[in-house]
Amino acid sequence: MYIPKLYRNENPEEVRRFIRENGFAVLVNQTEGNLWATHLPLELDQNEQGQEVLLGHMSRANPQWREMENNAAVMAIFQGPHAYISSSWYDHVNVPTWNYIAVHVYGTMRLLEGEVLLASLKKLVNRYEAGSEKPVTVEGFSEKFLSSHLKGLVGFEITVTDVQAAYKLSQNKDEANHGYIVEALEKGGGEMEKGLAEYMGRFKR
Predict the structure, then answer these.
(1) How far apart, in whole angstroms, are the C-alpha atoms of residue 39 and residue 37?
(2) Which among 49, 26, 25 is positioned nearest to 36, based on CA atoms?
(3) What is the CB-side half-sphere exposure of residue 89 using CA atoms within 13 A?
(4) How many CB atoms lie within 10 A of CB 168?
(5) Model confidence pLDDT, tens digit, residues 75-99
(6) Summary mean pLDDT of the chain
(7) Integer distance in angstroms from the first to the last C-alpha of the chain?
(8) Domain annotation covers residue 132
């Protein structure tokens, strides 16, 4: 992905945190001769060799996984809050723009089966059920119910080979104008704009 130097985030810990906070990704590869994308949650983890991996699963009916069996290259796109930035918020004449955070993770995939797949599902469910009033667990499903649903899934592990992170957060603006943008986003926006303002405050110039 094209990222101007000013907007590159090369801090691994910050990027890992972003991926964990924005785990619903777009998984892209070439399938049946065409570009193919699937929207799904991915969990950042480490394998037994200490390599960073993304864990996930998709429907067995989805043909995408068949093109990924033999270490084929894949890309996962993680996107955070984004918003239009009006140039009317500046104290000078300039053009409007769009602020955003996007992370592209590249890697190769292997399929997961049996107990390894089950462990991956447990980890994913436990993470997203942690804040529930009555959390569901994979262990709480009957063996018959779980077995029937596992047949319809394909689990996978993506070994990460490269990570590219774009944090376009008005780093090219001086402190005053950076503050005007944050104020406008917080005052007039929805959840997306407020989320972007939070990131801008966290990573201000």
Answers:
(1) 7
(2) 26
(3) 21
(4) 18
(5) 999 999 999 999 999 999 999 999 9
(6) 93
(7) 23
(8) no
Domain count, the chain: 1
Residue 182 falls inside a structural domain: yes
82 near 52, Cβ under 8 Å?
A: no
CATH code for the domain of 72: 2.30.110.10
Whether pTM > 0.85 for this model: the answer is yes
Residue 178 falls inside a structural domain: yes
**pLDDT of amino acid 202:** 86
Give pLDDT, residue 205: 60
Strand 24-31 to strand 73-79: parallel, antiparallel, or no bridges (unpaired)? Answer: antiparallel
pLDDT at 71: 64
Residue 78 lies in a domain: yes
- What range does the domain containing 61 cover? 5-120+154-202
pLDDT for the residue 70: 63
pLDDT at 97: 97
d(CA 117, CA 201): 39
* CA–CA distance, 164 with 149 (Å, rounded to integer): 35
Tell me how far apart the alpha carbons of residues 157 and 20 are, in angstroms, rounded to a whole number. 16
196 pLDDT tier (thresholds 50, 70, 90):
very high
% of the chain exceeding 90 in pLDDT: 78
Helix (H, G, I), strand (E, B) or coil at 77: strand
What is the separation of C-alpha 17 from the centre of its chain, rounded to a whole number of angstroms?
A: 10
Task: Report the chain's C-alpha Rg in angstroms.
Answer: 20
Structure-token match 């864990």, residue found: 55
